[in-house]
Amino acid sequence: MNDNPFYIVGFMGTGKSTLFSFLKEYGEVIDLDLVIESMTGMEIATYFDRYGESAFRDVESTVLQQVIADYILTGGGVVERSENIRWMRERGTMIHLNLPFDMCWERIKDSARPLVKKGREDVQTLFQRRDRLYRTASVSIDASQPPEDIAKQIIRIKGEKV
């Protein structure tokens, strides 16, 4: 395993989790949300509802600092805490999956994601706040492309950093 993990960040609906099957042929891949669900024994939406966003972010930060893999697919809100951004930048490479809000909204509007329940306006405000945080990533990739093309770009960039 490479000692320079790639942390894949981006808003809900940018396709982070979809990349799992494309990247697993090229190294170890961890989906942070799946690890959290496994550790807590419940879906993220359930955890969110039961304990709130702050408690979830605590768990997310802890898990982020425990996992080791070539590619770490993060949740959309991992950038909400500056210590998470610092952790990812100091220990690896942040890759931002960049997608305009309208495209994200089309992908997530019918989902059961806890934050989507608040409605389009609130989600757009959240997008605008997080977007500047995602842009602290070392690399930004256009997430409107097919997932296999995004994965190929990530793999190429990883190869250049080895």
Could you please describe the fold and organization of this structure?
Helix 2 (32-40) crosses helix 4 (53-64). This protein has helices at 20-23, 32-40, 44-51, 53-64, 82-91, 101-108, 120-134, 147-161, and strands at 6-9, 29-31, 71-73, 93-98, 139-142. The longest helix has 15 residues, at 120-134. Strands 2-3-1-4-5 form a five-stranded parallel β-sheet, sandwiched between helices. The model has no long low-confidence stretch (mean pLDDT 93). The chain is an alpha/beta fold.
Strand content: 5-15%
What Rg is obtained from the alpha carbons, in whole angstroms? Answer: 15 Å
Summed up, the helix count is 8
- CA-based shape: globular
Helical fraction: 40-55%
**How many DSSP-defined strands?**
5
Main attributes?
globular, alpha/beta, 162 residues, 12% strand, five-stranded parallel beta sheet, 5 strands, 50% helix
How is the secondary structure organized here?
Elements: E1 6-9, H1 20-23, E2 29-31, H2 32-40, H3 44-51, H4 53-64, E3 71-73, H5 82-91, E4 93-98, H6 101-108, H7 120-134, E5 139-142, H8 147-161
Parallel strand pairs: 1-3, 1-4, 2-3, 4-5
Helix pairs in contact: 2-4, 3-4
